[in-house]
Structure formats: C-alpha cells, structure tokens
Design goal:
- The protein folds into 2 domains: 189 residues, no CATH class; 49 residues.
- The chain is 72% helix and 0% strand.
- It is built from 11 helices and no strands.
- It is globular.
Length: 242
C-alpha cells in the first residue's frame, strides 16, 4: 500500500479525528432513532422466553434488527430451527448486495480489515457509508466511528429492553413499532440524488408490494432489494454505454 493510501486512522495527528467527528455527527440521529426499536426487540425477546444473556448474545452475534424482529415473531417451543434459518437468510440476503456495493469503497483498507467490517454493515451504517463514499473517500476512521456507537447502543438497549420488559406489557402503544420506519424515511431523504434515484426506489417498492400480496412469508424483502439493485445496475450499464 502506498503512503498516500493510508487511512487517517493510522496516522497520528488530526485527520482521523476529523473523520471520526464527522461520522459521530452523522450517525447520532440514527443511534437515537434506533433506541426504541432496540428496546422493543428486548421486550419481545423476554416475552418469548429468552434469558437476558440470550437476548444480549442474539443482538451481539446477529446484529440485524429486521431479522431479529421476524425471528422473534416466529419463535415458539420447540424452536423451528429450519424455518428461522431460512427466513433469516431471506431477510439478510440484501446484505450480499449491500456488501458488493460498499466493497469497492473500502478495498483500499489494509488486508484483514475490509471483510470483518462487513459484519457491522447494518442498513443505517451502509446508507451513511455510501453517502460518505459518494461525497468523497470512505475511510476506516469514519466507518469505525459509525459502527462503534451504533453497535454498542444496539446491544445495550436490547439488553435494557429485556430487563425492562416486565414493566411494559404493550410497547406498541407507545409508538415504538414506528421507530424503524421513521429512521429509514430519514435515510432515504438523505440519499435522494434527483430523478436517477427514483427508478430503483420505484422498482424496489413495486416488487416488494407485489410479492407481499402474492406470496406468503418474507420473500417481498428479497424481491424488493433485487429489483432495486437490478434497475440501478441497468442504469449504470446504460450510462457506461453498454
């Protein structure tokens, strides 16, 4: 790796601090908006019979809010392992596309850092990372400052939600179930880039709604992601003259 390719996180002085500070400012709204959803996951984990340690490990090792939410909705005794595994795979299959999209922007990191970083590629982290990459270079210091507060808050708030679950019997009546939708509306607004953005969004929404209406289960999530990615890829090929 050339000296000019070194990440500011590896250089003493202020550059990496500026990157980290910018990332913290960018991720703060996402962290705050994610708290109610994390608490809700903890509540549901308790209601489904998971211990505090199990709820903590679930958030720490899975780190996928939508997949955890659906898994808890399907949870029963005995645990339907095959159904849970298939459903989680379908829901998280979009991360394959997300990882492929972000990988060109982190390939300049030192070997052994880029691939582990993909574990922390939650939807909000991906959106903020791609927005940063579109405005300039995505550096490890920026990415790390996105991930650390988001991940730690997710795990700690899930655990707190489990502990507090005995006191709040119906979290939805407090509006906690809308937090996930709200944060994505904010992220979509931040990613708007004019008419070109509309094509993938419309394709994704249309495919998701159609599949949701016609097919039972979480297949609409995969269909929406695939449709949006396909339209985005076609736009790129057309722009390249392909």
């Amino acid at each position: 790796m050339e000296a000019g390719d070194r990440d500011p996180m590896e250089v003493s002085g202020r550059p990496w601090r500026g990157e980290a500070a910018a990332a913290l400012r960018a991720v703060a709204p996402a962290v705050a908006s994610m708290v109610p959803f994390a608490l809700l996951i903890g509540f549901l984990a308790r209601q489904n019979g998971l211990s505090t340690l199990e709820a903590l490990l679930m958030s720490a090792m899975v780190f996928a809010g939508s997949a955890q939410f659906v898994a808890l909705d399907l949870w029963s005794w005995p645990v339907p392992v095959a159904s849970l595994a298939l459903t989680t795979f379908i829901i998280n299959a979009r991360h394959i596309l997300m990882g492929a999209a972000v990988m060109p922007h982190i390939a300049h990191w030192r070997t052994g850092r880029a691939y582990p970083a993909l574990f922390f590629l939650a939807d909000e982290i991906w959106a903020l990372s791609m927005a940063r990459a579109g405005a300039g270079r995505l550096r490890l210091s920026y990415y790390a400052a996105l991930v650390v507060p988001f991940y730690l808050t997710w795990v700690s708030m899930t655990t707190l939600g489990h502990l507090a679950g005995a006191a709040i019997r119906d979290p939805a009546r407090f509006g906690f179930d809308f937090a996930f939708t709200a944060i994505f509306l904010v992220i979509l607004a931040a990613l708007w880039r004019g008419r070109r953005t509309m094509g993938p969004w419309v394709a994704s929404a249309a495919a998701a709604v159609a599949v949701w209406y016609l097919v039972a289960g979480p297949w609409y999530i995969l269909a929406g992601g695939a449709a949006g990615a396909a339209v985005g890829a076609l736009q790129g090929v057309r722009d390249d003259g392909g």
